[in-house]
Design a protein that fits this description.
alpha/beta
Length: about 160
């Protein structure tokens, strides 16, 4: 294994749900994550996301906040009430204003990724989160702002 390369994850921790109403962005994220060896399911709105989450277990969910049909806030409320076990790491993707992000609260999400972002950097974060999710519980850990890159990934990899 080369320096910085993560060990292989068990299959159940390689499953990611990308919830994004922008089809082009959703396809870009899914393709980037698949190249990293992750199994990716895609949802174009919150209702599709909840249907997938009810029948699959995800290590990570990338969740757009502002979507038609059912927005990210509605998805978060449903996930909290459904008691999914284990809970996925939820990384919110948003181009929304600061007020929308502040409505989230640290207990609801594990990270916030602001649009625009680099898909490769975000893929690095998702892989690290999936690997950490395998080792420990994210329920007590909240990351206020997600910054991709070497120092952040090094921090994530040091967590128990």
């Amino acid at each position: 294994m080369s320096p910085g390369e993560l060990p292989p994850m068990p299959e159940q921790f390689k499953r990611v749900l990308v919830v994004e109403d922008d089809a082009g962005l959703r396809l870009l994220l899914a393709a980037t994550l698949r190249r990293r060896g992750l199994h990716v399911d895609e949802a174009g709105d919150g209702e599709q996301a909840l249907a997938l989450a009810s029948s699959n277990r995800y290590s990570v969910m990338l969740l757009d906040l502002l979507m038609p049909v059912l927005d990210g806030f509605g998805v978060l409320e449903q996930i909290e009430s459904d008691e999914l076990a284990p809970q996925p790491v939820v990384l919110v993707i948003t181009g929304g204003d600061r007020a929308a992000v502040e409505r989230l609260g640290a207990h609801r999400v594990h990270g916030v990724v602001r649009k625009p972002f680099d898909a490769e950097d975000l893929a690095n974060v998702v892989v690290a989160c999936a690997e950490i999710r395998e080792r420990s519980s994210f329920e007590t850990m909240a990351i206020a702002t997600m910054l991709a890159g070497g120092p952040f990934l090094a921090l994530l990899n040091r967590l128990p």
